[in-house]
Amino acid sequence: MKKNEFNKKLGMCICRIRLKKGLTQVDVSALLGNNPQNISRIERGLISPTLFWIFNFAKCLEIHPDEIFKELDE
Amino acid sequence: MKKNEFNKKLGMCICRIRLKKGLTQVDVSALLGNNPQNISRIERGLISPTLFWIFNFAKCLEIHPDEIFKELDE
DNA sequence: TAAAATATAACCGTATAAGGTTATACAAAA
DNA sequence: TTTTGTATAACCTTATACGGTTATATTTTA
Fold first, then answer.
1. φ, ψ for residue A54 (rounded to 5)?
2. pLDDT, tens digit, 9 for 90 and up, residues B10-45
3. Nearest-CA residue to the C1' of C15?
């Protein structure tokens, strides 16, 4: 799988999880301590977040990191 | 958990998995198509690889990404 | 011993992740 | 209509991931 394709899939997973929690991009950025523009870029697949970012995201949203990954490897 | 601590834990997991497969850093870098110095930096926790890198690593070593993560969240 | 394999380290570059600011678009609600 | 909330976008800057090269240290092997 190419990097662009991977980033897009990852972004959609992030977005889906965020909406399932009823949060806005601003909400998530406040929880993580960064800016909403970055969340937007991640959800649209423009950038590929580090694993450290992913783990913080999962922790702040009170989910298991597996929830993000299990939809990515097919 | 701080970023440095996280990176060190992650690096140790990567290293343990690599050794379990009987591979050198050069072997892994050849499989992934990057240089061994980068593997060394990751294993020592100096840098935090992207999730894209992690998934490629897992695929090349024929393991589930979960194997890396399940030792990280405590 | 000498040579090769392995890992770490110090550089110097480039690519990209990420923050900050501002503007734009659009929908929902007043 | 006007206002507000939400998301996207275009910039610029800084931090960092990553490649390439070279050197060093250590272990292993011939």
1. -60, -45
2. 999 999 999 999 999 999 999 998 899 999 999 999
3. A47
The closest nt to A35, taking CA to C1', is C19
- Tell me, yes or no, if B7 comes closer than 8 A to chain A by beta carbon: yes
Residue B74 resides in a domain: no
Separation in Å: C10 C1' and A74 CA: 40
Mean pLDDT, rounded, for A53-73: 88
* Residue at A7: amino acid letter: N
A60 domain-assigned:
yes
Q: Which 8-state DSSP code applies to residue B72?
A: T
Domain annotation covers residue A74: no
Work out how many domains chain B is built from and give that number: 1
Does the C-beta of A25 come within 7 A of strand C?
no
Please state whether strand C lies within 7 Å of residue B56 at its CB atom: no
The conformation of residue B74, written as its DSSP 8-state character, comes to -
